Amino acid sequence: MNDNKLDLLHFLARNGDQNAMLELADYYYFKTNKQDLSPEVFALVKDCYCRLAEQGNSHAMATLGCLYYEGVNLPQDFKQAKRWFEKAAAQNNLLAINYLGYCHYYGRDIPIDYETAYSYFARAAQMGHHNGMYKLGDMHYNGHFVAKDPAIAFFWFNEAEQAIDESSPEYPNIAYRIGHCLLLGQGVSQDLLLALSWLHKAELGCYQLTHNGDAYAGLTLIRVHEDLELLRHQLGDEDSYHHADLGRHNPLNTP
Description:
This protein is mostly helical. Helices cover 70% and strands 0% of the residues.
């Protein structure tokens, strides 16, 4: 962001302008490396979200929940996260609805409850949110609450991919799942070269997210690299692997 506009946002935020507070906090939290924020800047971000949340802003409530859920710059606290997600979800905030699904799916300080998780993800998917769509895919892929069905899973992974663009932080997770299904021929005909293309998109996206301080991108990247290694062997030799394009160069790691 231009320094002049940033200075303007700081001025307006200090004077209680709600739009400026939200834009400023979102800029620092979503568009810079949140793990590199100074204590002073993080305190500003949290204060903006807290003040807005107390005024009933559902986006601020949901993002406060994310702060506690991720545990970046403050101790991880799933109970506090869930409390804020529930407040925001009561206003139909889609980010909060999805994160409540995560809380129940993974058992974040509560018992795992796949049925409740499915209901949250289904609610988000019905409202057109990509995150709910691809998590529905996960549940059908793994057979959690619903019957295991890779074809239904692949349908929802594709629906999620069509609902967002490649700049979304969730795009690498979705691209990985599409590539994984194509690699193994699960829910779709096996296509190794197409799988390689999707996994390469996922790899690049994970590197970019890691560069921006995403707390979970590294977990997806491990899975992507495992699939790329399997795919390299299935393609048969190094020449075929590189001929497909599609090397594993990380542009963010170039000296």
